[in-house]
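Dear Dr. L.,

I hope this message finds you well. Following up on our conversation about the binding site, I have prepared a predicted three-dimensional model of the protein together with adenosine-3'-5'-diphosphate. For your records, I am including the exact sequence and ligand specification that went into the calculation, followed by the structure tokens. Please feel free to forward this to your student if that is useful.
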Amino acid sequence: ESAERKNEAKNYNEVMYTLPKVKGLRGNDYYLYQGFWYSSFFLEGLMSVQEHFNPQSTDIFLTSSPKTGTTWLKALAFAILTRSRLSGSTTSSLLTKMPHDCVPFLEYHLAQNPSNRDLAIPLLSTHVPYSCLPKSIISSSCKIIYICRDAKDAFVSLWCFFPRIKCRKMLNLFLWKRPLRCFATEFQSWDHVLGYWRARFEFPEKILFLTYEEMKIDTAAHVKKLAEFMGCSFTFEEEEEGEVQKIISMCSFEKLSNFEVNKNGKHRPVRTHQLLFKIVYTLGKVR
Ligand code: A3P
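The resulting structure of the complex is given below.
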């Protein structure tokens, strides 16, 4: 870590300590910043990209709250956008990289290092609300695709997700006390949805608003809509050759979740407290 980066992190921490805070689902602190709640880790990333990030004019941002279909949207957008270079081959990066690594997170991967991306693939993602996006994105010609989902389903999805990352005990500890308030704080708030919903009317050519439920009902129509919006519509020949169906099939939950990388890979380095938890959990299982 460079001295400059350390200094910057120190400044962000100083700002953070002046902000209102609450305890989140896993007992960690969440800070109120520009109208939304963030964990210290993501807030630091957000402040950093707000200050430094500059998009390419052709970048497309996949935006969402957690548990609303982010991974699926990433896989579909990536497969659609990279299909020409893949045609006839089975070497899609989706076979060997997690969708989250194919489409890096702004406030995580890029905040750590702006070169944590493939410049040839103009896809980035973020959970940051519209009003908090870096000004450089808002004032650019970049396109934005937002996906939202019924908050009840996102909540259940989250509930089921935690045991998978071995946090069942922590989840129980905190959820029984104040589950929905925590959820609204950390993961999905109406203001998050409304921000993108309103912006979409202001900039209809720049923002595409999708719902997980509608995508499930008619995935093919949405894959074509995504392609059109990203400026790479399917040709008549591609449609005739079943390219849309191939992409849907490759990005299906069943297919993706069976790739080795998605079964055993990790898209974030394990942090110390997670590592500790993992050791305790594994020892508990062995005994
Ligand atoms: P459920 O937990 O209700 O099954 P996110 O990617 O934003 O974390 O969202 C997770 C939700 O998206 C999960 O919902 C998961 O099943 C669903 N999902 C992930 N990959 C998917 C895919 N390839 N196709 C359809 N849904 C997918």
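In brief: Residues 17 and 284 are 36 Å apart (CA to CA).

With kind regards,
A. P.
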